[in-house]
Amino acid sequence: MQAGTALGNLASAIGIRAEETALIAQLKAGSEEAFAWLIATYHQPVYSLIARTLPVTSDAADVTQEVFVKVYRGISGFHGDASLRTWIYRIALHEASNQRRWWSRHCRQEVTIEAETNESSEGQPICIKDTLVDEHESPFEMAAQSEIRARVEAELREVPDPFRTVVILRDIEGLAYEEIAEILNVNLGTVKSRLMRGRANLKARLTPFAEAAGKRPSQPSPPLKSSLAAEEAQ
């Protein structure tokens, strides 16, 4: 039984590898259809990965676009030493790292959106952020509706890198330990150590929030008789 399962997994892996080899050949040949498929398949995972590693989530779209530009320009030099996904994720983390360095160098020179720019007709100060209100939700906002999700995302960004990166790749992206080690160019023990420390750090940050949420009283439902009386009165 186990031998049959192992052979099935091996056949599946060979089939996937053959499909990837064919896709890479099409990409190197300049196939627009192959590149469109690549973007459709990897855009959301790459965007999510980058958004969770940047100090400013709004920069993720531009960085994601730059990643696929690098993929398009660099596919001719891809020799298959790693899987295509591993190679793309490696580029994504590199571009995110470049963006973080740029942000660290320039953010102090930028004007915060909390800065006051003028006064309203009532004499109240107006901040830049008040003039930039967008009534439409971004894709990231639509995916993070709940208070818990938002808090986890916020605390995750505070986890020190490189622990944060391993937590994202393993617990959110669902990558195998071996693939993470290949992406980050570290050994398997380092991946597991960083994951353990990253999880512990995130848990410590979320514990006060979880305890406060547990103590929060639930909204009581109105008594059935009172509700019926109110309906009859109407």
Provide the fold topology:
Blueprint: H1 2-28, H2 32-51, H3 60-74, H4 84-106, E1 116-119, E2 125-127, H5 139-142, H6 147-158, H7 163-172, H8 177-184, H9 188-215, H10 224-233
Antiparallel strand pairs: 1-2
Helix pairs in contact: 2-3, 2-4, 3-4, 4-8, 6-9, 7-9, 8-9
- Give the percentage of residues in beta strands: under 5%
* CATH architectural arrangement of the largest domain: Orthogonal Bundle
Distance between the termini: 69 Å
Order of helices and strands: HHHHEEHHHHHH
The average pLDDT is 76
Q: How helix-rich are the residues, as a percent range?
A: 55-70%
Describe the sheet with the most strands. Answer: 2 strands, antiparallel
Radius of gyration: 24 Å
**How are strands sequenced across the largest beta sheet?**
1-2
Number of helices: 10
CATH class of the largest domain: Mainly Alpha
Structural class, by secondary structure, is mainly alpha
Q: Low-confidence parts lasting 5 or more residues at pLDDT below 50?
A: 6-11, 219-234
Number of strand elements: 2
Assign the CATH superfamily of the largest domain. RNA polymerase sigma factor, region 2, helix turn helix motif
* Net shape: globular
Count the domains: 3
Any idea of the CATH topology of the largest domain? Answer: Rna Polymerase Sigma Factor, Chain: A
